[in-house]
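User: Reviewer 2 asked us to show a designed sequence for the structure in our supplementary figure. I'm pasting the structure tokens here. Could you produce the per-position amino acids so we can include them in the response letter?
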């Protein structure tokens, strides 16, 4: 499985994969009516795809709110048929490396219903920082959790 930066030619295939994930898992709860736009949020800094046998099977992005030194990890998904092979972890690790190289903190928000994602973030060392309610433009709302990325380890021999 290849993890690489998302190119402009990848957007349609990534959008189709997102719709398939939504049909299987109910993720995301918004954005599937215009998946290409949803995959390119305001403040998008970078996005990556997981590719297997020439097909886009996963995606992740980092966006940054106006100003600040914190990026938001978002738009993470992997097709059900491609799960169990480490794609989500590899996508997250690439995003963490980008954030570290750009001296950005990383945060994310995940709906409480997405228990597999929550288990993954915790396993990868992300720290829960709070609980809130995620409000949609439709008026619906969902309980959610916020997380921050693990701090990069200090190089050996420094104090």
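Assistant: Here is a per-position design you can include in the supplement:
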């Amino acid at each position: 499985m290849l993890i690489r930066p998302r190119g402009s030619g990848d957007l349609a295939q990534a959008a189709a994969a997102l719709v398939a994930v939504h049909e299987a898992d109910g993720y995301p709860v918004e954005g599937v009516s215009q998946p290409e736009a949803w995959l390119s949020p305001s403040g998008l800094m970078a996005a990556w795809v997981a590719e297997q046998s020439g097909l886009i099977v996963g995606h992740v992005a980092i966006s940054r709110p106006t100003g600040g030194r914190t990026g938001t990890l978002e738009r993470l998904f992997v097709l059900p048929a491609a799960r169990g092979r480490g794609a989500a972890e590899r996508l997250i690790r690439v995003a963490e490396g980008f954030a570290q190289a750009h001296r950005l903190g990383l945060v994310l928000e995940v709906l409480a219903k997405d228990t597999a994602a929550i288990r993954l973030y915790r396993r990868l060392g992300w720290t829960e920082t709070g609980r809130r309610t995620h409000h949609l433009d439709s008026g619906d709302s969902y309980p959610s959790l916020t997380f921050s990325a693990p701090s990069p380890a200090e190089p050996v021999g420094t104090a």
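For the response letter, you might also mention the following. The chain is about 25% helix and 35% strand. Residues 25 and 80 are 9 Å apart (CA to CA).
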